[in-house]
Every structure is written in C-alpha cells, then in structure tokens.
Amino acid sequence: MVRATLLACSLAVTGALLLGGLIPMTSAQNPTLGETPQSTPNWETIKKDADAEKAALDAKRQLLDARRALEAAEAPPDQTKKAMDNQLAASKAAKDLADAEKAAADARKAKADATLAAFKANMGEVPASGYTGDVTLKEKTGIIETALLAAKAVKTAAQRIVDVLPQQPAKRIVVLYAAAEVPNFQALIMFRAQIALANKGFADAQKASNDADRKAVPPDFKLEFVPPAAAAGLTLEAANKLLAFFRTDYTVGGVDLTSEDSLLVHALAGLIAGSNKNLDVQLPAVYSPGALSDAGSGILNDLTTLSLLKTGAQDKANRHDKFSARFTEDAGKEVDPEKKAALLDKAKTHKAAADTWKAAIGLYDSFFSKLTTVDDKGVAPLANVIRDGVVADVLLKDNLLLLVKLQKFGGAYYTKKNMLTLFGGMPFFHMGGVVASFVLLDGKAGTVQGSGVIPVHGGFVKASDLPQQINED
What we know:
By secondary structure, this protein is of the alpha/beta class. The chain has two domains: about 1-20 and about 45-75; about 145-455, no CATH class. Helices cover about 60% and strands about 10% of the residues. The chain is built from 13 helices and six strands. The two termini are about 95 Å apart.
C-alpha cells in the first residue's frame, strides 16, 4: 500500500514538472526571427505557472511524507513512544472516570438536598437547643484526679523497686532516705576533727607543763591542788551541763520532705516491711529511736573526757602563772647578772606552759560553745552530730542504705468528641505517672548493691471510671 502511494506521488511530481515548464517543450507561439516581443505580461500564463509550481511542491511534500511513512512502517516499533501513548490514554480514561463520578456525586447531593428541603417543608424547622456538647475546662482542671492517679503510680513504682531488692540471707537493717535528705555526715566529721584537735591541744600543754616542772620549781613553793572532792564537783558540774543539754534542748527533728518524695518513701517502707526480703526498715529522718534511748553515748563520753581535761588544765595554767610570777619577782631582787638571767629564763618557761594550757582551754571553750548554740531554726549542731552518729553506727554494722528519689510526679488529661458525647457522655480522660530512681548501698563498704530508674505510666482513665480505678488494691 505504501509503495503504491509512493509510485502515485512520483507520477504526480513528473506531471507537475511537465506542466510547470520545468521540462522544456517547443511553444507554437514563439516569435519568428525579426519580430518585436510583446511587452504586456500574460497574467493567466503566470498564474498557471505558479499553480503548477505549487502543485509540484505539494507533490514533493507528499513524496517525502510517503517516504517517512514507509520508513516508519518498516522500522521496529518504538517502545518508549508506545508506553507514553498508553499512559496518555490511561490518564484520559482516569480523568473521564473522575468526571463521571463527580457528576454522579453532585447528582446525589442535589437529590438529597431536594429531599431534605421537602422534609423541612412538610415538618417545619426544629429550633436549636443551645447545647454543643463542648467541655469547658477551668483553671486547675483535673489536679486532684491527676494526683490520685500519680499516687497510685508511685505505689506501682515502689513495688517494682522492692521486687529488685536482693534477698538477704540473714536479717539486716535498711536505712531509707529520700535522696535529697541523706546525711552527708559533715557534722559528725567536723565533731571528730575538733575532738582530735582539742585532745592534741591538751596533750601539747601537758608536755610543756611537764618540761617546765622538770626544769624549775621554786624550792619553797607549795603546790595547791584542787581537793579530789572539789575536782569531782567540777567534773560533775560539767557533765551535768552536758546531760542537761541532752535532756532539755535536744530534739529529734527530721527535715521535711517534699510531698512527692515522702509518698515514695512511705510506700517503700510499708512494702519492704511486708516483703520476704529479710529486711527491717528505719526512717531516721522521721524518727530515730537510737538518738532518744541512748543519746549519743559515745559522743557524750568524748565531751566528758574533754571537760575533765579542761578542769585540770585551768588549775595547771594557774600554777604555772604563779611559778612565772615568783621567778620574775626573784629575778628583780637578784643583782648577779647570770643568776638574774637564769631566773628570767625559768619565768619564761612557766609562762609558756601557762599560755599553752590557756590556748587548749580556749580551743575547748570555742568548740563547746559552737556545738551547743542553737541556730535560727532551734537546732544545735550537737543534735546533728548525734543524729549522724546514730545513722553511722547502724550503717557500719553491715547494714544497708537505700536512697530514693521521685524524679517526676504528674500527669495529663485530654478531651475527645464522638457520637457518644453527642448524647451526653463525658469526653474527659485523666492520666497519672511517675519516674522514680533508687540506689542501694552497702553501709560498711559503700559499694552499690543495686540501682535503677523506674518509669510508670498509669494510662488514661475516663473520668467516670476514676473511683473504681483508684480504689482497686
């Protein structure tokens, strides 16, 4: 078919060339030799020539088109073009389908609107009720509900902490503290350092006193000692002051915990006590029976010993002052320069011994005064020393220290609307959750026996279900 078309186009081109004068032919109207050519153009002939030329060009174009068609027919099919054609056809079909569906939807909506209009015309308008089903939330909405759910989450966290505590082969005490309230034992450490310093002061004074007595004592000077009964009286007076301090001024005062931490501490105390972990629980920040039943007997003994040293120290300081005064007086009467210098040297030695005793006494008085002076909260440093001492004694007897902290305590709420709320359902939900952490330490070695972080999400609970959820054991 294509070849026949090509042959026809070739014949048409040849004919057009003959008609257009492109192939020369003999004209019957050519002027004879010697005649003058006509000057007026033959427009009809020109038009025919132009038409013939146009026909020739059209024939050429048709020939080229026929050749391209032949080449396209004989060439292998173009898959890319075919795919594009298919995609265009599919897109057009999809658009036609979408247009048809939209037209159908518009028709259904128009029908529904017409039906509703007819119904309203028959039944009349129903007035609006003024109720929209919204929930109006005021300030502090859900605080109590969230606190209740968070408290339950605290109990869950406490139980999970108890579950991971190691089972003890023998009965042990666990000292339970909120992490922020654990004692740093600074008061006890300072007390022991001051005790050691005061004892050293008295020991140094005693050495200086012995050296002075060995070097020079007036031969006719009578030493006056405090009678044993009087010394005992002074000692008893000092001890009575100490005992009166413990008896009248000392109170066991725990530092207030935040409500969040106290929730966790109290929950843990009960759960540990009721577990089978072989542990007894103590809460020194709340109540310390050791401080009441035996009010720091070791600390009291240390202070009593120092008070006895002070009583003898004052007597010895007075004696060395008298010796120094006697040697100074004798030196004033002596005319021999060498003897005078020797007497002054003895006076200086006893003066130094007396000053050493006075320095030790001053150190003790300053220490004791600071220890027993109450602060603006009515608590004396000695009370903290005793409290720290009781806890330290318990821990050093191979017991445990459990520190806990409620890192986060709170909750959330949300509202929702659905078909049920349209008919009066309460679309309000509460959630309570906590993040707790703990570390268990060996009281004697200080090594970690266990630790962890416990996150608890209580889940969202519908407002009407709160009583049942909260009151479940």
